[in-house]
Automatic annotation (TrEMBL):
<feature type="compositionally biased region" description="Basic and acidic residues">
    <location>
        <begin position="980"/>
        <end position="996"/>
    </location>
</feature>
<feature type="region of interest" description="Disordered">
    <location>
        <begin position="980"/>
        <end position="1089"/>
    </location>
</feature>
<feature type="region of interest" description="Disordered">
    <location>
        <begin position="944"/>
        <end position="964"/>
    </location>
</feature>
<feature type="compositionally biased region" description="Basic and acidic residues">
    <location>
        <begin position="1032"/>
        <end position="1070"/>
    </location>
</feature>
<feature type="region of interest" description="Disordered">
    <location>
        <begin position="865"/>
        <end position="909"/>
    </location>
</feature>
<feature type="region of interest" description="Disordered">
    <location>
        <begin position="1"/>
        <end position="20"/>
    </location>
</feature>
<protein>
    <submittedName>
        <fullName>Uncharacterized protein</fullName>
    </submittedName>
</protein>
<feature type="compositionally biased region" description="Basic and acidic residues">
    <location>
        <begin position="948"/>
        <end position="964"/>
    </location>
</feature>
<feature type="compositionally biased region" description="Polar residues">
    <location>
        <begin position="1013"/>
        <end position="1029"/>
    </location>
</feature>
Amino acid sequence: MTGEGGPTPFPRKPEQLVQPPQPLPLYDFKALADPPDTWAFLDVLYGRVEDCRVVKVSQLRVLVKHYFWGIDWAQNQKTARTTRKAHNQTTLTKALWKLFWYMQDEHRPKSYADLLNLDRDTGPRLFRYDITPRPPPLSQWFPNQPDDRAFILPAYFRPLDAPLDLPDVVIQQYMYSADSFNEPTVTQQMVDQPFDNEQQFLGINFAANRFLQMPPDDEDLVYDKELVQVPWYEQADYLFDADLEASFNIQTTPRKRKRSLSPSAPNYRGLAAPPASTVQAFQGPVFASRRDPSEWTWQPGLQPEYVSPPPDEPQVGPIIQLAEPVYEHQIVAEAIEKALMQVVYADLERDPSAPSRNEPVKNITAHRFKDLLQMKIGAFSNISSVRVSPITFKWDSKGASFPLRGRGPVWHADSCATDCVIMVGRLLDVGCTRVDRANNRSAEFTEIEKSYIEATNIAWEILDEKMAIRARDEFLQKFIDGQLHLRMGEPLPPWAVWSQVTKSISQFRYHHIERVTPCKCENTQSFINYHEGSCILPGYRRGDDKGVAVGTLIERCFYDRKSFSCKRCGDPLGVTGERRVGQLPLRLVMTFDVKTRLRNHTQHLSFKYTDYDDKKRVAHYRWLGGIYNNEEHARVYWTDSNRGEQTETNVMMYDSQLNKGLLLGGVPAFKPEDRVPNEWVNQRAIPLLFYERIMDPSSELLASAHTAVSDMASILQSDKNVLEAHVAWIPPSTEPQFDPWDRVLSDMGERFTDYNPSWGWDGDPSVNDLENPSATNVALDPALIDPTVIDQSLLDPSLYSNTSAPVFDISAFLESSMMDDDILAQQIPQGSMQDILKTHLFQSMLDTPDWLSSYEHLWPSGKPSKDGALEFPDLPTWPSPKGRKRRRMQSDTSMPDAYDQGSDQTTSGEHKAIVMLSQNIDPRQREAYENHQKEQELQAYLKRKKDKWWSEKKKERKSENEEQIRERNIKIYEAQKAKEKAKEEAKQKEKAKEQAAARATIKPATTRIPPTVASSSTAQQRGNAYSQSKAIQDEKAKQKADAVKKAAEAEAEAQRQAKIDERKAKKEASKPQAADTGAMKKSADVSEL
């Protein structure tokens, strides 16, 4: 052991090292992969460390304990028979080389002298901060996590490769030098005390490194041994007490050995001159050098101008050189990017005419002092996070803490689909963006759309359970009243509600044209159809159940060119269609078939399309979220990052059945590539998905931004102020804001309510009370602050009536001749309203729009094709009666509201019942009868459609059967004709051969032949004739047998073909019958509804 100023001696055993307690848990070093074998440290390859014998085994064990402080690296060396407790030299060297591979370049030893220097800092803080798992910023010199209020030194600069989720205080601790210890903290005591100069306030002590104040060529350097800085755990005289010594098991007084800096440290004072160290000699040993240490040169700017003030100047304060403020590049770039992207996405910003969520709308002009008392108070939630179970997401005081993003409606009676639709509209600002309300588009909103927009702007976080249910049911009841065959408390698919409340919303609209080239058989020219839609409903193809990308499904709907079969001539490629997209939606809405399975739908998607100029383009969208279902239950999963932010793996989750409709943030994703849990996606149809278009600034916008920055630079170069020489900004508009429509729903859930400061004061204050405000007894009634809360004790009892209303007698208004018991019994059929209320259009929340594919009149763009549809279908509504005549009634009784609601064939009894119900006798009975009449008209309409459909089907089936029978008879007739023709041809061939043979046997004699020769030749001719006739007979028999065989084969083939055609005809006849049966069943169900 050397003297007080010498280096620390190298111990013989690892137990002789003095180290602070290690933090728990230790960093898992075994989870890191091994470096490549070609990587070299100190000229030794990692794959050849077994050949390195520079460091001994005893030294390696000490170095391993020193460098692996706070790191778990040990692995048992197992063999076939035993487990060795000690590591060999190769294992220790490989572990050290692997540690130096993951160490930052600024902290890695540069020589074997640095490697054996035990005065350097060690710990996971020296690792690279971009590895996984991420090391904690802890080391022997900095064993604690940095405080969020820690002081950021002026010499600090954020590295370009620093992760965005790490704050500067953590990055600063990662960058502290490992060769010199000086923890730069600014305590309250330091702030309160005056400082001699700015450098001392910022933690830079020039006196500790006085050789840096002089040029390098000065020889007389002075050092102060008292200014040697030691780590925190070495400062035993003032830091540790007896309790801390006992708890850490560290003996501090008396010290057996004092830690001092090694010759490689810049604060070393053992020599007369600064040693040639491999680390940068910077006066503030707080940051490691991020460049080659040999490149360091003397910088005169580091020394102050004056150590003491000039003789002529009074000493009123330190004279220092102020540095220019340093701006972080990332902050400036982010501010510029946000400003430009705000211009790009201006259409999706909230419109000024939309209800404000932060402050009330100012639309009143005061004419007197009393008008100033018209105020509004707002209710806001101050809850930032909730503690729930991370598995079930139910309240749990010991569970995990999740940030609270808001609240929505509370579930009641199968309302989860409607609740999710309201929450999605709130997240998307449906009907409240600039593009939705531009050019007075809010005037086109229907009543149901206005009520939905008001429901999305309700302050759900300030409502209790009962009020939240009432507010949601008010909207749902209004929605159901406008539709046919919908009932409260029955399941509703999310798309059914969404399709009716977003028809006029522009942020989901897109426009495309379809250029159709007819078949050649029609001999007509091409024509163009214009379409617009608000959603995409891709069709199902074989193989989609195994997984398909969302972009592929969109490209099927936005196809470039496609051929279709001609219905007239049957050409499968006769008709050609081309789709050209003119305007893509800012936010894309999609729903899918039940059997379709999506792959990685939470990732960014891209698809190709062709614009109006026939140019190929690619559109990019980012996933926003969607409504998912699991076992007839709906839930919203949404992205937890804003536009342009780093894509995190967390999502937001809303479930109206959990915790009274909380919208939780920071929920861990299922997988990075598919964030929604598997049970909500796999084997489940996704009702609704939402994507937002990724847009880039135009070249004109970037040019304008570049011009603005250049103008500011020119102003600065001309020695002028920017705010004085630039073009003045346009002040914000101060015009009063007005609501575009009268409120449809009630004021329940309004964030801002009327408030008058005079409410709640008991009497008029006297003059003495005004002079002494503390003496006034102010009694502010909280019930009067919120108008929705009414205390019945404050109401006047005279307002209540103690008598009941008289019984209304209908006979006083009708003639005696009209009081027929049979007519009165027929005016409202028994159970009509009950039958109407029992019907419901949907059977499950999983019903897709394909359920209505057979009703072509419900689809605005026509019946969906195999590729899908580009618009939601309309829901059945109450039909408008046609052909009704309105005429006044001739009666002695004054009935100003009575008119004939029936047709010319109305019977007298029905006519009298209608007359009675047309009066304002009982609105409930009148409404019930009108609904019953509408239901009967609808059933009659459906029955006519069903009968017409049945008749057409029967005609088609009859015509098909007749055509098939005719074709079969034709084939049988042709087979018989072929058989007869074959027989006739065989007979003709046989006759021709017989004639030829007869002509060959009879030949005239032209020469005289001698008798002997003649007799011999005659015998020979007779033999030849006999042989020839024998051959002819054999050939004839053979041909006859072949003809008979061919005829039999032809007859068998004809019979077989006839049987095949008959089976095909029966099969084809059974198919339309089965289809008709299924269609008839669905029509019967609708008819029953």
